[in-house]
Amino acid sequence: MKHRAxxxxxxxxxxALSLAACKSSGNGSxxxxxxxSITNTATAVNDAPTGLANAKAIVEAASAEPAxxxxxxxxxxxxxKGVKVAFLTxxxxxxxxxxxxxxxxxxxxxxxPKVITxxxxxxxxxxxxxxxxxxxxxxxxxxxxxxITPQVRAAQAKGIALFGAYTGDQPGGKTxxxxxxxxxxxxxxxxxxxxxxxxxxxxxxxxxxxYVDLPLYPTLVAQGQAAKAEYKTDCPSCSMDTLGLSVTQLxxxxxxxxxxxxxxxxxxxxxxxxxxxxxxxxxxxxxxxAGLSNRVKxxxxxxxxxxxxxxxxxxxxxxxxLPEPYVMWTVVDWMxxxxxxxxxxxxxxxxxxxxxxxxxxxxxxxxxxxxxxxxGRGRRTTRRSSRRCGRSAPDGADGIAGSxxx
Length: 406
Prior knowledge:
Blueprint: H1 5-19, E1 37-40, H2 51-61, E2 84-89, H3 93-96, H4 99-108, E3 112-117, H5 123-132, E4 137-140, H6 149-157, E5 161-165, E6 178-182, H7 185-202, E7 208-213, H8 218-234, E8 239-244, H9 247-251, H10 255-264, E9 271-274, H11 283-289, E10 297-300, H12 305-313, E11 318-321, H13 324-339, H14 345-351, E12 357-359, H15 362-372, H16 383-389, H17 396-401
Parallel strand pairs: 2-3, 2-4, 4-5, 5-6, 7-8, 7-9, 9-10, 10-11
Antiparallel strand pairs: 1-8, 11-12
Helix pairs in contact: 1-13, 1-16, 2-7, 4-13, 5-6, 7-8, 10-11, 12-15
C-alpha cells in the first residue's frame, strides 16, 4: 500500500463494517495580532547512553507503510441505507484533504453525505445548519466542544451524534454528545516523537530544530511538546526552539520570511520542522534565497504531493505521512457501528490515533507519487483490500459497495 493507499486499508475497515485532514482550534478564531510568538526550549538533562538506539527504534517502526488495519470485527449486517450524515470542514487546504474520504465512505454504505465548510470564527453556525437539516450523524474537524456549546446541547436534545477529528476533546457519548475523535492528541504525540527521533538519527544526535506551528491549535502544540520530550529523553545534546505563527500570517504568506529571520539569528539550527504541510509553501525557496539551504534541512508532518516533489528536487529532506482519507473512513466506521449499537471503547481505541509512516528518501517520494497518482494521495487500492471486500474492484469505494449485504 502506498500513501493514501492506506485509505485502501481503511476501505477494508469500512468493508468490515459494511459487511455487517487543519487541527484543533482552541477558540475557533484567529485571535492573534499577527506577532510571532517564540519560545526557546533547549533541553538539558542527564545523558541517555541508549538515546540514539531508542530513536533508531522509533524511526524503524515507522519506516514501513502499514499493511493492515487495527480493527477487523465486521458488523452482523449492513447498516440501514439512506442515512443523512454531514462533515463540517474548515476552509484550509489541509482540511479539504479530508472531504473525499468522508464522502466515499458514506456513499459506500448507501448513506447520503454532505460536506459543509464552516467559518472558523463562528463554527457553531455550520453545526446549527446541519442540525436543522436533520443529519443523524455529524463529523467535524478542527472544532473543539467549548466553541460550540449551544449547538452541542441542541444536537443532544435531538439525539444527533457528533464525531470529531484533530481535537483534544474526550468522547463522552451521551454525556457530552461526542462519540469519537479521530487523530486525537495521541496521534499528535506520535507525530512529534517520530519527527524528533528522525532528526536525532539523521544528525547522529546533533539536531537543533526550529519547530514551526500555529499555537492557536492545541493539537499542534501537543505535537511540539511531544517532540521536545523526545529530545529530552533520547538526545540531551539536542535542542528545539518553537516559532509560533498566526493564522493571519499563514494566510498572508509571511511564514517563510519569519522562518528565515529566525534562522539568521540562530546559526546553530540545522532543521526546520514544519508541524503540517500548509506551512511548507515558499519555505524551501526562501531558505535558498537567503543562502541557508545547505545548512538547514526541511522536515515535517503530513507530507503530500508538493512535499514529495520537493524531496525529489532535493530542497526538502523528510516527511511523515498521515493519510487523511483514512481518518474519515475511521469516523464513518464509528458512525456505522453506533447505528448498529455496537460502538465500544475497543473500536475507538484501535483507530483513534490513526496511522503514520516516514518518507525520507527521493526514491521513496518517487514511489509515493508513481503509485498513488498525480495527487500524491493515492487513487488505487490493493488486491488484498479488494479480496477482503469480496470482489475485484478498480477502487476502494466500489469494493466496499460490492460487499454490502442487504
